[in-house]
Amino acid sequence: MLLEGYAQNGRFPADEGYDSEGEPGVGVSKGAGFIETEVQLTHWYEILQIFSVLGAVGAVGVALRKSYTLLATVMAIGNH
Question: pLDDT higher for 22 or 38?
């Protein structure tokens, strides 16, 4: 429901709001509507923190590939 609303309107569905007595969607609603805000970086290096996970996964992948290659080479030499 949430993602469906985003796909149709380009933003998440609005809150139904509550009336002055706390009943949902009855009478004059308080807090109903869309919230619009900007997301900003606090420091310039926060962009690096986003890509650090991708870099770490890549480094582990390279290490695993090199370990496999080394192990395969050692096993091949041991068979001769």
Answer: 38
Q: What is the rounded CA–CA span in Å between residue 34 and residue 13? A: 7
pTM of the full structure: 0.47
The full set of domain ranges for the chain reads: 1-37, 40-80
Tokens of 26: 């009855």
Confidence of residue 7 (pLDDT cuts 50, 70, 90): confident
Answer yes or no: are the C-beta atoms of 14 and 25 closer than 8 Å. no
* Coil, helix or strand at residue 11: coil
Question: What contacts 11, CB < 8 A, 6 or more positions away?
Answer: 34, 36
List the one residue out of 32, 41, 36 whose CA is nearest residue 14: 32
Q: Which two tokens stand for residue 45?
A: 């290096």
